[in-house]
Design a protein that fits this description.
Elements lengths: L12 E13 L4 E13 L3 E5 L6 H8 L7 E6 L2 E2 L5 H8 L2 E4 L11 H11 L4 H14 L15 H12 L6 E5 L7 H18 L2 E6 L2 H7 L2 E6 L2 E7 H5 L4 H6 L12 E8 L7 H9 L2 E11 L4 E10 L3 H10 L3 E4 L2
Parallel strand pairs: 3-8, 3-9, 6-7, 7-8
Antiparallel strand pairs: 1-2, 1-4, 4-5, 9-10, 11-13, 11-14, 12-13
């Protein structure tokens, strides 16, 4: 009997978090910053955690590298349960986790090269190897010509590039990003996001980032979670969330348009992947002799897929059949009452 050549492949999760809890206590009250969070991030994935200030995002990120000890739950990175480690073993494990910060955290008394070299000193890289590695990292982030400059002589974007080079010094498998672009202007933000996406693809780097900016999720994230009051209210691959009636889909594609039109059925239609570029609305109008008015919406290219969302007014003899056609075509359809 001939065996099938097809094999089931197991997804390797570089980051695995289960039942994570962290509470801050004072004399008067307790605040649950992270309340039972589960999270898996696959190898080479860019995962964004989106939420407002106070949602628990930063605490979650700091628990990943054990800068904050969780009260309960487990955190595994590259197959190692960090919650079981302490002392030297934890410090060594942290070498596999790079981190970039919102406000750069550079040493003002050191040059650009010196800041990157500092990370190599901490990880015990021999002096004879440091200069070559620093040059390699500065070339990687586009700062070879600024090696001898001091942080005070750099722009915000250049400072963040130094921070990224320093975070990559020990060749980590995971990069954590703590609101890395929130202090930057839109043009600089775009350049840093392009750099992170390039590093993800060239180095196979797994990135977990926290942000309150929808632009960041749109631009580079393959998966995302929305965090509120210490919990994930929804999570998954961005392409899948777009195909559901998700909060993320509504926030990614806000529509400023009326929700009622006299004599018409008003619907929100969300599509992704190849469906975003199909003549879906033209097919709808032809098949059902339906007047289709686009009240608002747009199509965009996200990190890994094309996606679009429209608000339509349908005015035909059989709107129910038209809606059924849209659903069978792969669109997510929401009808306004």
């Amino acid at each position: 009997m001939r065996r099938s050549s097809h094999r089931l492949t197991r997804v390797f999760y570089v980051i695995e978090i289960s039942g994570l809890r962290k509470t801050y206590r004072s004399r008067k009250r307790s605040v649950s910053a992270v309340d039972g969070v589960d999270l898996t991030v696959g190898e080479g994935e860019v995962y964004g955690v989106l939420g407002r200030s106070g949602a628990g995002k930063s605490t979650l990120l700091r628990c990943v590298n054990m800068l904050e000890r969780p009260d309960a739950g487990t955190v595994s990175v590259d197959g190692v349960d960090l919650t079981r480690l302490s002392g030297k073993r934890l410090r060594v494990a942290r070498h596999g986790i790079g981190m970039i910060h919102q406000h750069f955290a550079l040493l003002s008394s050191r040059t650009v090269a010196g800041n990157v070299a500092f990370a190599l000193e901490v990880t015990g890289t021999p002096r004879s190897q440091r200069a070559a590695r620093v040059a390699e990292l500065l070339d990687l982030v586009g700062l070879s010509d600024r090696a001898d400059a001091y942080p005070s002589q750099l722009s915000g974007g250049q400072k963040q590039r130094v921070g990224i080079a320093r975070a990559l010094a020990a060749r980590p498998k995971v990069l954590l990003s703590d609101e890395a672009t929130s202090a930057l202007d839109p043009e600089t933000t775009e350049s840093i996001l392009r750099l992170l996406l390039d590093l993800n693809r060239r180095l196979g780097l797994t990135i977990l980032l926290i942000t309150h900016e929808m632009t960041v999720v749109k631009r580079i994230c393959t998966s995302a979670a929305v965090m509120r009051d210490g919990r994930f209210v929804e999570s998954g691959r961005v392409a899948d969330l777009l195909r559901s009636d998700s909060e993320l889909a509504r926030d990614l594609f806000p529509i400023d348009a009326p929700t009622s039109v006299p004599g018409a059925t008003v619907v929100d239609v969300t599509v992704s992947g190849e469906d975003a570029d199909r003549p879906l609305l033209a097919d709808l109008a032809r098949r059902f002799d339906t007047d289709v008015r686009i009240l608002g919406g747009h199509v965009e290219t996200l990190a890994t897929t094309r996606a679009g969302r429209w608000r339509l007014a349908l005015d035909g003899d059989d709107n129910e059949a038209a809606l059924d056609f849209l659903r069978k075509s792969g669109a997510q359809v929401g009808v306004h009452a």
